[in-house]
Amino acid sequence: MEKLVIEGGAKLKGDVYISGAKNAALPIMAATLLTDEECVINNFPMMRDTVTMAKLLESLGKKIKYGKNKITVTSNGKPSHVASYELVSTMRGSFCVLGPLLAKLKKATVSLPGGCVIGVRPVDLHIKGIKALGAKVEIENGYVIATANKLKATHMYLGGVFGSSVLATANIMMAAVFADGETIIEPAACEPEVTDLANFLNKMGAKIKGQGSPRVSITGVKKLKGVTYSIIPDRIEAGTYILAAAITKGTITLHNANLEHLMVLVDKLKEVGVNLESKNNKIKVSPAKEIKPVSITTYPYPGFPTDLQAQFMALMALAEGVSIITDKVYPDRFIHIAELDRMGANIRREGSIAIIEGVKELRGAAVMASDLRASAALIVAGLAARGKTEVHRIYHLERGYVDFDGKLRSLGAKISRVQEK
Ligand code: EPZ
Predict the structure, then answer these.
(1) Is the confidence at residue 117, as pLDDT, over 80?
(2) How far apart are CA 391 and CA 294, in angstroms?
(3) Superfamily of segment(s) 22-227
(4) From ligand 1's centre to the CA of 256, what distance in Å?
(5) Does the beta carbon of 235 sit less than 6 angstroms from any atom of ligand 1?
(6) Cβ–ligand 1 contact at 173 (below 6 Å)
(7) Around Cβ 301, how many Cβ atoms within 10 Å?
(8) pLDDT of 12-70, one tens digit each?
(9) What is the pTM of this model?
């Protein structure tokens, strides 16, 4: 087991290269189940979660060949409709094989994903959606067992108490690609990663319209073909480095990043005093003289992303005043508060809101990674803290970031990877 050791205080500077989006790669990998032909996925982010998904695809009849920032997916001739607990329970995103398995094989047995530290993570909307398409669904021994001779198009409402669902939209979009007629999903998730999936499916020959809007239409086709496709940049990775630069009052340039996917962060950081400007696929971050307190509430896209909430809280811990953070997507996503407080932050939770009283400085401490983004927040805090911060259980981090410590070192951070004793 390894830990990351950070000596705080260095201002980040220089260039960082953003990888492909994890949350686009996972459903796009699942979508390769909809064809037996070869798919080449470029700008591919190699990390624990995408490797887990590749292993799952191999158990479902695919052969994966890894290249530099790319994978090639072909069929191994042994298709299976069973996605095992061992694999699905380690990575919730793998639940999005349900839709493509049902569409391609007319049946799917997929383990229910566990909950995780950020919340219960129900899948009721996924099940509601495939039932609306005419699938028969049973839940047995922790598995969803779905069958359907012929899926039929329908107009469905897919909103939950927290609004639209990213992976439920992805699952139903994929389940509907061969269904006779036009399926309409409302409210569909508008996240750029869902749009990327729709664009990938259309390149395969699907007929999807309205992606990126709350009303998406899928007109069934007979067959999908293999394609070559390049994944969009990871806006959450980009946002994490932007907040790391902001907290260290550094000046950095992000390459292969798309600022249009981060307009809410641009807006909020302008209030903080941090300036972001974009020119041809590069984003320049200029520091604030002083960090002004800014309150945020997370919402489905284009609202403030819940996946940047923890990292933004780390920045607010050093603001000149009080800010309030509300998470409307995962009301319990505050595990990072206790760890930030151990570093000298002054944050308290009241239900689904956190009240952050900015402090003059944070102090290095030994902290425990847990949720992927909470781990990133602790590192962001450690970069600005006085003294040494040790982050344990960094496998959580490796699930969702490509070479996080390496990229931070290239920006001048004093961060090293050390074997746990
Ligand atoms: C995706 O998860 C992302 N994961 C998450 O990123 C991200 O936090 C989340 O979307 C919200 O943006 C992937 O794309 C692999 P949801 P997903 O369904 O699709 C509720 C990361 O760090 N809900 O959009 O599982 C749910 O409880 C990860 O990269 C239902 O009620 O999230 C939540 O409150 C963490 N019923 C809200 O909807 C359902 O059937 C949004 O969840 C499904 C979801």
Answers:
(1) no
(2) 27
(3) Enolpyruvate transferase domain (3.65.10.10)
(4) 25
(5) no
(6) no
(7) 20
(8) 999 999 999 999 999 999 999 999 999 999 999 999 999 999 999 999 999 999 999 99
(9) 0.98
Task: Decide if domain 2-19+233-419 falls under CATH 3.65.10.10.
Answer: yes
Ligand 1 pocket residue status of 393, Cβ below 6 Å: no
Nearest residue to 372 via CA among 55, 110, 47, 124? 47
2-19+233-419 and 22-227 have identical folds: yes
Sketch the domain layout of the chain as residue ranges: 2-19+233-419, 22-227
Tokens 């319209």, residue? 209
- 172 Cβ closer than 6 Å to some ligand 1 atom: no
Identify the bridge partners of residue 217 per DSSP, sorted by sequence position. 184, 209
CA 403 – ligand 1 centroid, Å: 24
Answer for the pair 370, 234: CB distance below 8 angstroms, yes or no: no
> Relative to the CA of 329, which ligand 1 atom is closest?
34
| Span 287-337, pLDDT tens digits | 999 999 999 999 999 999 999 999 999 999 999 999 999 999 999 999 999
